[in-house]
Write a structure and sequence with these properties.
Number of domains: 1
Distance between the termini: 56 Å
Oligomer: single chain
Radius of gyration: 17 Å
Shape: globular
Structural class: mainly alpha
């Protein structure tokens, strides 16, 4: 059975019922993406999109409440990952390849060194990077107050974007029948806009210099 289909079923069953389980599930999903280095193993964008769709169809929970739970958990995950990076990062012997590897760590380091604190703001929108960026920021000894300020907005906007998209678009038949494709499309459009903006800023900085 497709693992994504199994996760889809778990989300639908949990979010369709009343009680605190729905809030716990959304919080765990968001936390896994920003607080754990194994986050890339979980299709966070797609699952948040599905969660928004289920909330719309079941009407068991207010969208704003579940978004709040997800945003708070994503923020907490970012902060915990940051302190783990500061504490454990230099002590870990990384594998060369794989999702949790020296290779992906180096990619995130390059992304972080190029964009600085802005990387923390936009990292939640970029799979793999969102799980490694807080850790790398901790390893790089980024100023905690600067990190926390960036973390207050980036993860929250990420949760809002994908859950709200699922809520408002997920009932459209063509979207409902191609959820993974549309969640990926949202990611591509947002990423393209982010990197286009960053490229413009970099060009302006180079011209100014």
């Amino acid at each position: 059975m497709n693992p994504l289909s199994q996760l889809d079923d778990i989300l639908r069953n949990s979010l369709s019922g009343t009680g605190p389980l729905a809030y716990l599930l959304i919080a765990l999903l968001a936390f896994s993406q920003t607080g754990l280095l194994i986050g890339p193993l979980i299709p966070g964008n797609t699952l948040l999109f599905i969660a928004g769709l289920v909330i719309r169809t079941s009407e068991a929970h207010p969208l704003i409440n579940l978004i709040g739970a997800g945003a708070a958990a994503a923020f907490v995950g970012n902060v915990i990952n940051f302190w783990l990076g500061a504490w454990l990062g230099p002590k870990i012997k990384w594998k060369e390849k794989g999702l949790v590897s020296a290779q992906n760590l180096k990619r995130t380091e390059a992304f972080f060194s190029q964009h600085g604190s802005l990387a923390i703001f936009i990292a939640p929108f970029v799979p793999i990077v969102r799980s490694f960026a807080p850790f790398v920021a901790g390893m790089a000894k980024m100023k905690p107050s600067l990190f926390i300020m960036a973390s207050l907005f980036g993860p929250a906007l990420w949760v809002v974007l994908f859950m709200a998209s699922g809520y408002f678009l997920g009932t459209v038949p063509i979207v409902r029948d191609n959820i993974t494709l549309f969640a990926g499309g949202i990611f591509v459009l947002v990423s393209a806009k982010i990197f286009w903006t960053l490229a413009k800023q970099k060009k302006r900085s180079a011209e100014a210099a």
